[in-house]
Amino acid sequence: xxxxxxxxxxKASFILAAAxxxxxxxxxxxxxxxxxxxxxxxxxxxxxxxIVLVGLPILNIEILLGRATQKNPVGAFKTLTDKxxxxxxxxxxxxxxFTILSFYSIVGGWSVAxxxxxxxGTFSSFDNPQMAxxxxxxxxxxxxWVIGWHTVFFLMIVGIILSGVRAGLExxxxxxxxxxxxxxxxxxxxxxxxxxxxxxxxxxxxxxxSKINPQTFLLALGHAFFTLSLGMGAMMTYGSYLSxxxxxxxxxxxxxxxxxxxxxxxxxxxxxxxxxxxxxxxAGPGLVFHVLPPLLAQxxxxxIFALLFFLLLTIAAVTSGISILEVSVAYLVDELKxxxxxxxxxxxxxxxxxxxxxxxxxxxxxxxTLLGTGLTFFDAADFLASNVxxxxxxxxxxxxxxxxxxxxxxxxxxxxxxxxxxxxxxSIFKSSSxxxxxxxxxxYLSPVLIFxxxxxxxxxx
Length: 461
Ligand code: PHE
Description:
The chain has helices spanning about 10-20, 25-35, 40-70, 75-80, 85-120, 130-140, 145-160, 165-190, 195-205, 215-225, 235-240, 250-275, 285-295, 300-335, 340-355, 355-360, 375-415, 430-455. It has about 450 residues and is mainly α. The chain has one domain (about 10-455): Amino acid/polyamine transporter I (Up-down Bundle).
């Protein structure tokens, strides 16, 4: 174990950084549109079940693996078992980090670009979402525009990562997360005060069960992984900068709680505006880029609200983007003994280039689809990451914890560290009935659910 490896300065810093990773475009861009397309509250309900029964246990395992080994995903598995297979599971995480960042950075770039457009007051001249959609498509038809903003976003995350764990990741999250929360609260309050806001609230909270089908489960489970940053080693890597005295169970609760609350609040902020203007909540991925800018800009004080919204989106994207890139950087630092600077610049460059095909999916390569899937590079990267790589990573994590490392060892490790909280800390694992429930979730429920989802994705059920 290298003793010059950096650590978070406190558990609170870890929680903020990990919440920064979890709260991202997944919460503010994806969750609202997936919920919008899949019946609102009905989706929310299934999604919450997936978070509690699958997401939370796996989040504990992932952070714990990092803390116990003080290593990146590849190194973590290597430390705990000599079976070479598991090293490749770690490597799958590094690959997933590439895939995710290649489309994430494009959306991150849009968010930065839209913050500037909001600053210029561009949106106040849009009368309706169609105008905003035309604007979006026009901008995206220029490869230089998309690549340029992707570059700006990328430079931001590379800059933070270069500064290291404490001076970079920790400092950025400590400053940005409270700002994010403050902005979100302003937007929620203004949304709730709009006439017709209750339509948005009841869309999110009164379920229409007829909207639920097997596809809903697939989406909800995939999204639970995505939103909690699970299945590719981001939480493991962040966990590897924790010290043994920190309680993983308590930190996991906090991260899952913050992530869920922020997704719901983002849903409230967005759907109140959409409903009060009488628009369709099922607008798909364009919801925040097409529908929202004109609706926000037309409110009283709309200039500020539009600006705040895109600032919120940018902050969310940056604090998650850094955790995605950090996985591959930590891999090079731990395993190949690169300096942080060399690792960041190497991986940064590689992932930056890997994102170019996703950038071209909106213009030069909009007709290029992958191997008969009908998906562009951008859509394929999103699909592959959220519906295949992350659940697959989660599946292997559950198998590793449940059968290779073993539940006894997991629980013994979970019991190390103390949060001082009697209710939301690791002392719950002292109860043997809780331990059996946890064991059931990790050994049986999670792998089986994920497996079923795969069969469904492959079209076998
Ligand atoms: N959780 C992030 C979001 O919701 C995305 C992410 C996925 C980050 C995987 C890290 C790892 O936007």
